[in-house]
C-alpha cells in the first residue's frame, strides 16, 4: 500500500517548471530515497507535501488524505525537516522542541526523547544560535522526529554533518521504519548514500521523474539501456547525463 | 574609496535608496501641506519666509530625517549580521573600521537626498506663498548646509549603535529612545542640545553667527569623539571574542 | 491545544529579547524631565489646570504622541524578526496549526507588550508623583481610579494603531519598509489631530484622546473632543480590516 501518491504533480514559477507532472508511489513502512542533482525539484516536491508551496498542476494524497482539503490532518501525521534547519536562535535546543511538542499536543517526555535520539541531550540548555552547524542539523532532525510521526519527510538530512554524524543519522533513519513503524521520504544528491539507506528510490532531473523502483530495478533498467552498472554512482551520472542530452538546452 | 563602492553594492535590492527617497518626499511634503492648509493664517504675519517656514516645520522635518538615519543604519548592519556576512568581512584582509567608515560615508551622502528635497520644498513654499524667489537662495543654502553638518554626529552615533547591537530591533529601539530623549531636551540649553540627536532640531535661520559657529564646533568635536568610540568598540569586541 | 497555550508559546519565543529593558529605559526617560521641571506645574493659571493634573497629563501626552507608537513599531519588528531570523516561521507552517490562529496569537503578544508599556508608564508616574509630592510639599498623587480610567482609554485607543503596524509588518516583507512607513506615519499625527478627519488616521488616536483629556482637565482650554460617531465605527472598521489583512497575508511569502 502506498502512503504517499502523486498524480501528475507539477509546479511552475512563471516560465520555469520546477516539477513537471511527476507520479510518485511511496510504499508504507519503507525508506524512500528521492534522488537528483541540485535544483532537480526535490525540495519543491517536499514543500508541496507540507503545504509550503502550492502545486500548479496535478494532485497528491498522503495517507489517503487529499491536499488542500485535509492540510491540517496531513500535517498532524508528518514530521518534517526542510531546507536548512528552522529554529528560534534566542531559545535553547530544549525550548525549541518544547514549543513544537506543545503545538502537537505531546507529552513532556517527548522532548527529552527527541533530544536523546539525535544525541543533543548534553547541549539541550545551550542557545540554538550558539550551536555548531551539525548541532543545528540535529536539532532540525529532532524537531522532525518528535512525537514519532507515522510519516517523515527529510530534505538532505545529513548535510553539514561530520562522517561520524552522517553514519549515526543514516543508521537512525534506516532503523526508524522498524522501530517506530513509520515511512521515511528522504532526499539526497548522493546515490552512495541512498544505496545504504533506501528500499526504494525515485530519480528526479530537471523536474522529471526518470526512474522509480528498487535498486535492483535500477540495475536492470541500466543494463537494458546500456549504462554502466559496476558502480551505481556511474549509473546515476549516465542516467542524468542521458536525460540532459535528450532535453538539450531546454 | 573601495569600501564605499562595496557598501553601495551591498545595499542593492534592500530598499535603502527608496527609503531615503520616500523619506525625502514625506519630509518635503510637511511644509507644503502645512502652508496649503493654513496659509491664510500665516500670511497675515509679516515675517521673513525662511525663518518662519523653519520655525513652523523644522521639528517635524528633522524628526523624519533622524528616523531615516536610525532606520537606515539599523538596516546597514542588519545586512551584515543577518546571514553572518560580518564574519566573512572580518576574515578578509581589510581594516574592520573601513566597513564602518564606508557606511558612514554612504549614509552621509544619502542624507543629502532628503535634505535636498526638503530645501526644494522650502524654496517652493517661499516662492509660491511668499512670492520671494532667488534672493533667498543664499539663506536657504546656508540653512541646509548647517542642518547637514549637524546631522553628521547623529549618523555616526546611529551607525555605532547598530554596529554594537546585533539584533535589528534593539538598535531601532535605542535609536527611538535617543530621538525621543532629544525631543524632550530644551533647545535653548547649549550643552544639552549638543546631544547628537537634539542638535538636529537647531535652525540656522533664526540663530546668530556666533551660536552657529559654536554648534558647528560642537558637532565636529562630537564626531571626533564618536570616531574614537568606533575604534574603541572594535578593540573591546576583539578582546571579548 | 487551547488558544492560551498558543499565546504563551508566542511569549516564550520573545523570551530573553530584553524588550522590557528598552521599555523601562524609555519610561524612565519620559518622566525625568517632568520631575526636573516640576515647578512649571505651578505656573499653569492661564490654562486653568491644577498642578497635579498637569503633571500627569503632560507626561502621558509626551508618551502618546511619539514614544508609545514608536515603541510599538519596534515591538512589531521584534515579533516578526524573531520568526524570520532562523526560519522559525517555516517550521511553524509545517505544524498542524492554522496560519490565522498563529497570526492572532502574535497580535495578542503585541497588544500585551503595549499594555505592559502603558502599565510601566503608570507605575513610573506614581513613583515620580510621590517623589515630587515630597520635594514640593504639595500632593501630586491622583486617585488610582482616575489614572486607571485614563490608561485604559489610552490602551483601547491604541488597538487600531497596533493593528495597522502589525498589518504593515506582516504584509511588507522588507523590514525596512514596514519600519520606515510605520515611523513616517507617526510624525504627521501632530498635524492630523488638528484636522476634522483625525478619526480616519489610527496613529493619531492615542494622542488625540489624551489631548482631549487635557482639554477636559484644563478649564480655559478648548480642545476638540471625540464624537463617538464616526470615531468608534471607523476605529472598529480599521482594526478588523487590518487584522483580516494580516491573517490573510501571514506566512504567505514563505509558502510561495
What do you see in this structure?
The complex is a heterotrimer of chains A (250), B (241) and C (256). Chain A is of the alpha/beta class and 250 residues long. Chain A has a domain at 2-60 and 74-85 and 150-247: Rossmann fold, CATH 3.40.50. Chain A contains 9 helices and 11 strands. In chain A, strand 5 and strand 6 (65-66) form a beta hairpin. The longest helix of chain A has 18 residues, at 163-180. The two termini of chain A are 36 Å apart. With 241 residues, chain B is mainly α. Chain B has one domain (2-240). The model of chain B has no long low-confidence stretch (mean pLDDT 86). By secondary structure, chain C is mainly alpha-helical. Chains in contact: A-C, B-C. Chain B binds chain C through residues 14-16, 18-19, 22-23, 26, 30, 33-34, 37, 60, 63-64, 67-68, 71-72, 74-75, 78, 82, 167-170, 172-174, 176-177, 179-181, 183-184, and chain C through 17-19, 22, 25-26, 29-30, 32-33, 62, 66-67, 70-71, 73-74, 77-78, 81, 85, 174-177, 179-180, 183-184, 187-188, 190-191, 195.
Low-confidence stretches of chain C: none
Low-confidence stretches of chain B: none
General shape of chain B: elongated
Relative helix content of chain C: over 70%
Strand content of chain C: under 5%
Largest sheet properties of chain C: none
Order of helices and strands of chain B: HHHHHHHH
Q: What share of the residues of chain B does DSSP label as strand, in percent?
A: under 5%
Oligomer: heterotrimer
Note the gap between the termini of chain B: 29 Å
* β-strand number of chain C: 0
Sheet with the most strands of chain B?
A: none
Overall mean pLDDT of chain B stands at: 86
User: Which structural class matches the secondary elements of chain B?
Assistant: mainly alpha
List the helices and strands and how they pair.
The complex is a heterotrimer of chains A (250), B (241) and C (256).
Chain A (H helix, E strand, L loop, with lengths): L1 E12 L2 E7 L2 E3 L3 E5 L6 H8 L7 E6 L2 E2 L4 H7 E4 L11 H12 L4 H10 L14 H13 L5 E5 L7 H18 L2 E6 L2 H7 L2 E6 L2 E6 L1 H11 L6 H16 L3
Parallel strand pairs in A: 4-9, 4-10, 7-8, 8-9
Antiparallel strand pairs in A: 1-2, 1-3, 1-5, 5-6, 10-11
Helix pairs in contact in A: 3-4, 4-5
Chain B lengths: L1 H9 L5 H29 L4 H34 L2 H6 L5 H34 L7 H28 L3 H17 L24 H32 L1
Chain C lengths: L2 H11 L5 H18 L14 H34 L3 H6 L5 H38 L7 H28 L3 H12 L2 H4 L12 H13 L10 H22 L7
Helix pairs in contact in C: 1-5, 2-3, 2-5, 3-5, 3-6, 3-7, 3-9, 5-6, 5-10, 6-7, 6-9, 6-10
Amino acid at each position: 500500500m502506498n502512503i504517499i501518491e502523486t498524480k501528475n504533480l507539477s509546479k511552475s514559477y512563471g516560465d520555469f517548471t520546477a516539477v513537471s507532472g511527476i507520479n510518485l508511489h511511496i510504499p508504507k513502512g519503507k525508506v524512500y530515497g528521492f534522488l537528483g542533482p541540485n535544483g532537480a525539484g526535490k525540495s519543491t516536491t517536499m514543500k508541496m507535501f507540507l503545504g509550503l508551496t502550492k502545486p500548479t498542476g496535478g494532485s497528491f494524497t498522503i495517507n489517503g488524505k487529499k491536499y488542500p482539503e485535509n492540510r491540517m490532518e496531513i500535517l498532524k501525521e508528518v514530521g518534517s525537516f526542510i531546507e536548512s534547519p528552522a529554529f528560534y536562535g534566542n531559545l535553547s535546543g530544549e525550548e525549541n522542541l518544547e514549543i513544537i511538542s506543545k503545538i502537537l499536543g505531546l507529552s513532556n517526555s517527548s522532548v527529552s526523547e527527541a533530544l536523546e535520539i539525535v544525541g543533543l541531550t548534553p547541549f539541550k540548555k545551550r542557545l540554538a544560535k550558539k550551536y555548531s552547524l551539525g548541532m543545528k542539523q540535529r536539532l532540525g532532525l529532532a524537531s522532525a522526529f518528535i512525537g514519532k510521526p507515522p510519516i517523515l519527510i527529510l530534505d538532505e538530512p545529513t548535510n553539514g554533518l561530520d562522517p561520524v554524524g552522517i553514519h549515526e543519522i543514516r543508521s537512525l533513519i534506516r532503523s526508524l521504519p522498524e522501530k517506530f513503524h513509520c515511512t521515511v521520504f528522504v532526499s539526497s544528491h548522493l546515490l552512495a548514500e541512498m544505496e545504504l539507506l533506501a528500499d526504494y528510490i525515485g530519480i528526479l532531473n530537471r523536474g522529471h521523474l526518470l526512474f522509480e523502483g528498487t535498486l535492483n530495478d535500477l540495475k536492470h533498467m541500466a543494463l537494458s539501456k546500456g549504462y554502466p552498472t559496476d558502480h551505481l554512482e556511474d549509473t546515476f551520472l549516465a542516467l542524468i547525463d542521458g536525460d540532459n542530452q535528450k532535453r538539450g538546452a531546454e | 574609496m573601495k569600501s564605499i563602492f562595496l557598501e553601495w553594492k551591498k545595499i542593492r535590492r534592500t530598499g535603502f535608496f527608496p527609503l531615503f527617497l520616500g523619506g525625502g518626499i514625506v519630509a518635503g511634503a510637511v511644509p507644503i501641506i502645512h502652508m496649503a492648509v493654513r496659509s491664510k493664517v500665516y500670511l497675515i504675519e509679516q515675517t521673513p519666509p525662511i525663518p518662519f517656514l523653519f520655525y513652523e516645520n523644522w521639528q517635524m522635518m528633522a524628526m523624519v530625517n533622524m528616523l531615516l538615519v536610525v532606520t537606515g543604519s539599523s538596516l546597514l548592519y542588519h545586512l551584515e549580521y543577518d546571514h553572518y556576512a560580518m564574519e566573512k568581512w572580518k576574515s578578509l584582509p581589510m581594516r574592520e573600521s573601513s566597513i564602518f567608515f564606508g557606511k558612514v560615508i554612504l549614509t552621509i551622502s544619502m542624507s543629502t537626498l532628503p535634505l535636498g528635497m526638503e530645501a526644494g520644498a522650502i524654496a517652493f513654499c517661499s516662492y509660491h506663498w511668499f512670492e520671494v524667489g532667488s534672493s533667498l537662495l543664499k539663506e536657504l543654502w546656508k540653512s541646509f548646509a548647517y542642518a547637514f553638518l549637524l546631522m553628521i554626529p547623529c549618523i555616526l552615533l546611529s551607525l555605532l549603535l547598530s554596529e554594537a547591537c546585533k539584533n535589528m530591533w534593539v538598535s531601532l529601539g535605542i535609536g527611538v529612545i535617543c530621538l525621543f530623549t532629544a525631543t524632550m531636551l530644551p533647545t535653548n540649553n547649549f550643552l544639552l542640545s549638543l546631544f547628537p540627536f537634539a542638535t538636529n532640531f537647531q535652525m540656522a535661520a533664526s540663530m546668530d553667527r556666533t551660536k552657529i559657529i559654536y554648534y558647528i564646533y560642537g558637532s565636529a568635536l562630537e564626531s571626533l569623539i564618536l570616531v574614537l568610540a568606533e575604534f574603541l568598540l572594535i578593540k573591546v569586541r576583539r578582546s571579548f571574542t | 491545544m487551547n488558544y492560551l497555550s498558543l499565546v504563551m508559546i508566542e511569549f516564550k519565543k520573545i523570551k530573553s529579547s530584553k524588550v522590557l529593558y528598552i521599555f523601562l529605559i524609555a519610561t524612565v526617560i519620559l518622566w525625568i524631565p517632568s520631575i526636573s521641571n516640576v515647578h512649571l506645574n505651578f505656573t499653569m493659571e492661564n490654562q486653568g489646570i491644577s498642578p497635579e493634573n498637569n503633571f500627569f497629563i503632560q507626561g502621558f501626552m509626551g508618551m502618546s504622541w511619539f514614544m508609545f507608537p514608536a515603541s510599538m513599531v519596534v515591538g512589531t519588528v521584534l515579533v516578526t524578526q524573531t520568526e524570520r531570523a532562523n526560519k522559525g516561521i517555516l517550521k511553524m507552517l509545517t505544524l498542524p496549526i492554522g496560519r490565522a490562529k498563529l497570526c492572532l496569537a502574535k497580535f495578542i503578544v503585541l497588544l500585551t507588550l503595549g499594555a505592559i508599556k502603558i502599565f510601566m508608564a503608570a507605575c513610573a508616574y506614581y513613583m515620580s508623583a510621590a517623589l515630587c509630592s515630597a520635594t514640593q510639599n504639595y500632593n501630586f498623587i491622583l486617585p488610582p481610579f482616575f489614572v486607571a480610567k485614563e490608561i485604559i482609554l489610552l490602551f483601547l485607543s491604541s488597538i487600531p494603531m497596533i493593528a495597522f503596524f502589525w498589518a504593515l509588518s506582516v504584509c511588507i516583507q522588507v523590514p525596512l519598509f514596514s519600519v520606515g512607513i510605520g515611523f513616517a506615519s507617526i510624525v504627521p499625527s501632530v498635524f492630523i489631530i488638528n484636522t476634522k478627519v483625525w478619526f480616519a488616521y489610527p496613529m493619531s488616536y492615542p494622542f488625540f484622546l489624551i489631548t482631549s483629556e487635557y482639554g477636559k482637565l484644563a478649564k480655559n482650554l478648548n480642545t476638540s473632543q471625540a464624537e463617538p460617531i464616526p470615531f468608534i465605527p471607523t476605529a472598529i472598521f480599521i482594526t478588523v480590516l487590518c487584522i483580516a489583512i494580516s491573517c490573510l497575508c501571514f506566512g504567505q511569502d514563505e509558502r510561495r
